């Protein structure tokens, strides 16, 4: 039916809230033609709708069909690739997820895709870790990559290596995610007190509060002041003076 320009926007938003993704998608084209949103706002809404559609695909076949049906320009959006890859890996299909992300990263580096790569479900984490470590040569100071590497190391219980990657990530760009994964590392090593402190620091960061130094360790909060830019490991990653690549 006919709606005033703002009506298509309200319809799309209401359908999203109800979880009626097909209805929300059907409102996109009339909304675009109406000119009710500028290009940036329309692109953001379209991304939300398509992300929701991918996330709600009921089966791996439905997900593949939806992905194949999207125009090529949308299948090259890092945010949508991340959603598709994450969801398809949860269906037990990590290889298509890896292929999509690796192909996209060859075209253009994207921290969002690197983060998604580190979170993929499925087996062969060792192989995925080796591939991602190869990216350090070109992106040695990328905190998102270091955090993803730390996450994968935790998955396969490489505790010392995980701690090194995560400490470097926190030195370069502190994040709640890195603190949380560092907490998992200490928990895996049988140190619940340091694990709890890391989790507390993750909570502090989400609240915009100051983090606290870890007792009995180098203060990760102060690492940024002590990293020697000339001291690098085999991949060229800035390394702490007392770093040990333990496994």
UniProtKB/TrEMBL annotation:
InterPro entries: Heme_biosyn_assoc_TPR_pro, TPR-like_helical_dom_sf. It comes from the Bacteria. One of its GO terms (cellular component) is membrane. One of its GO terms (biological process) is heme metabolic process. Transmembrane segments: none annotated. This is Heme biosynthesis protein HemY. It comes from Oleiagrimonas soli.
């Amino acid at each position: 039916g006919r709606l005033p320009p703002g009506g298509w926007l309200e319809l799309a938003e209401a359908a999203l809230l109800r979880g009626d993704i097909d209805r929300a998608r059907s409102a996109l084209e009339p909304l675009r033609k109406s000119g009710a949103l500028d290009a940036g706002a329309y692109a953001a809404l379209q991304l939300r709708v398509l992300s929701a559609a991918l996330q709600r695909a009921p089966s791996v076949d439905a997900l593949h069909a939806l992905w194949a049906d999207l125009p090529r320009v949308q299948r090259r959006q890092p945010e949508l690739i991340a959603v598709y890859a994450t969801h398809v890996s949860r269906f037990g299909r990590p290889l298509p997820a890896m292929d999509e992300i690796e192909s996209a990263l060859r075209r253009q580096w994207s921290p969002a895709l690197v983060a998604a790569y580190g979170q993929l479900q499925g087996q062969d984490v060792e192989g995925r870790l080796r591939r991602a470590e190869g990216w350090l040569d070109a992106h040695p100071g990328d905190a998102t990559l270091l955090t993803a590497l730390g996450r994968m190391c935790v998955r396969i219980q490489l505790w010392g290596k995980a701690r090194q990657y995560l400490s470097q990530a926190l030195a370069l760009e502190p994040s709640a995610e890195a603190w949380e994964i560092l907490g998992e590392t200490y928990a895996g090593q049988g140190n619940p007190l340091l694990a709890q402190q890391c989790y507390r620091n993750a909570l502090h960061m989400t609240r915009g509060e100051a983090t606290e130094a870890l007792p009995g360790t180098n203060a990760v909060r102060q690492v940024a002041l002590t990293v020697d830019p000339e001291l690098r490991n085999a991949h060229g990653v800035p390394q702490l003076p007392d770093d040990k690549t333990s496994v």
